[in-house]
Amino acid sequence: MRTYLTMFALALAASSAMYAADANAGKAVYNTSCKSCHGTDGTPNAAVAKMMKVEIKDLKSAEVQSMSEAELTSVITQGRGKMQPVKAVTGKAVDNVIAYLHSLKK
Fold it and tell me: Residues 55-91, buried b or exposed e (16+ Cβ, 10 A)?
């Protein structure tokens, strides 16, 4: 019985790792689709913010880092304020970008 439970636990851990978001893959997507406005490390691009006359949030800030997965998904896929939806980021890439954003935490 103990061996069965151990094997089950290992299989469960392997399957969740298989579906876990990948921050490295998210960084690649971020660099292609987000970096021009949100900066290399999540620090807003001041020139873009000034040109668009908006405040771009620092992605490392407690405010952004405390957002739920659902809120971050909504911002990426539906936009917010003057930020348009990022149509190039869909499916698993959204989860990966969110994993990368969480890796920026101060």
Answer: ebbbbbeeebbebeeeebbebbeeeeeebeebeebee
Is the C-alpha dihedral spanning 87, 92, 98, 103 positive or negative?
A: negative
Q: Assess if residue 12 is contained within a domain.
A: no
Tell me the per-residue pLDDT of 23-37, one tens digit each, with 9 for 90 and over. 999 999 999 999 999
Return the residue matching tokens 């800030």: 61
CA-based radius of gyration for the chain: 17
pTM over 0.70: yes
Distance of CA 35 to the CA centre of its chain: 12
CATH number at residue 69: 1.10.760.10
54 occurs within a structural domain: yes
- Which residue in the block uniquely carries the two structure tokens 């873009």? 48
Of 21, 15, 28, 17, the residue nearest 69 (C-alpha): 21
Q: What are phi and psi of 105, to 5 degrees?
A: -45, 135
